[in-house]
Amino acid sequence: MRQYWQFISTVLGVIFRHPIAGATLIPILPDDRIVLVRRRDTGTWGLPGGIVDWGEDLPTAAKRELKEETGLDLAQFGRLVGIYSAPDRDPRIHSISMLLEVRATGNLNVEDTTEISEVRAFTRAELPLGNLSHDHDRQLQDYLDGLTTIA
What we know:
Low-confidence stretches: none
CATH topology: Nucleoside Triphosphate Pyrophosphohydrolase
Largest sheet: 5 strands, mixed
Distance between the termini: 43 Å
Oligomer: single chain
Number of strands: 8
Number of helices: 3
Strand order of the largest sheet: 4-1-6-5-8
Structural class: alpha/beta
Radius of gyration: 16 Å
Order of helices and strands: HEEEEHEEEHE
Strand content: 25-35%
Shape: globular
CATH superfamily: Nucleoside Triphosphate Pyrophosphohydrolase
């Protein structure tokens, strides 16, 4: 019984003492517009993405999150824009986000209505920079500036 409890304690320690890995996406449509989602919890716009599920790799998580939050299909991976790991980048939990540029196709449609209230494509001039959720202003600006960031 003691070994069982020790195993459970170790697993809980790993889960709650280490950052969670996630994918954040910059979906680019064929007409070069950038897709953002409006978060239901804060009402702010942000980049789609989420936590990599247990047993899932990053490409699979990226495809799943893109579909759930935007209704789009991931057509092609672009570049790795950056890795963002500041403990305060997400107010909910310490997470490490891998920011990926992706080419996307399909029709905009929120499938995960518990997290996302709206999805919209923006030209670069229309992007609502300055009040995006989490650290997405920095992430999107790094992308627009052509940077590759480790932060």
